[in-house]
Fold this sequence. Notes:
By secondary structure, chain A is mainly β. Helices cover about 0% and strands about 50% of the residues of chain A.
Amino acid sequence: xxxxxxxxxxxxxxxxxxxxxxxxxxxxxxxxxxxxxxxxxxxxxxxxxxxxxxxxxxxxxxxxxxxxxxxxxxxxxxxxxxxxxxxxxxxxxxxxxxxxxxxxxxxxxxxxxxxxx
Amino acid sequence: xxxxxxxxxxxxxxxxxxxxxxxxxxxxxxxxxxxxxxxxxxxxxxxxxxxxxxxxxxxxxxxxxxxxxxxxxxxxxxxxxxxxxxxxxxxxxxxxxxxxxxxxxxxxxxxxxx
Lengths: 117, 114
């Protein structure tokens, strides 16, 4: 089974702190994603990565950055946390099966609930 | 641009009753459509997906969904609800040639009463 793990289930930080959220996948997947989940808004894509050291902005990248130094690890960084970044953060990974999208699936981690005070 | 609309943020049913969660999509190209489920305190997992093969798609845990192009709908159903079905369900659309860019609906929380 594919396993996507996130370093913390719950995190409480103060405004202005630098925050690191870590995600690790164990299936040698090419793609990794960071989403935030807010009530009534569903999931929104923050950043994604197709390969090591490659990153692309999603729909809401402002206030975030990412790092992918190794294929299995994708980090989300909040340079200076703000209260409006209080949310559930979900990491996901998927393969690129030669663009055969009918067989691709995103696999999600359990999420990190971040509270910024 | 692709989008999905889930009708009803909360749905409540009795155990043993029919589950119907509604989803309508808009897409300028043939879509791929998915339902993901999120159980309490867990990440999302794929329930089922439509990728232009059979229009009636069967998923895990007895769920199924039917792609209706004329109605631009992809409603999720289950004939008989179980208490364990209580969760949040997301309808998702993607471009048919690349499922890595997923557009999520706002979610429907299903409650099941004994």
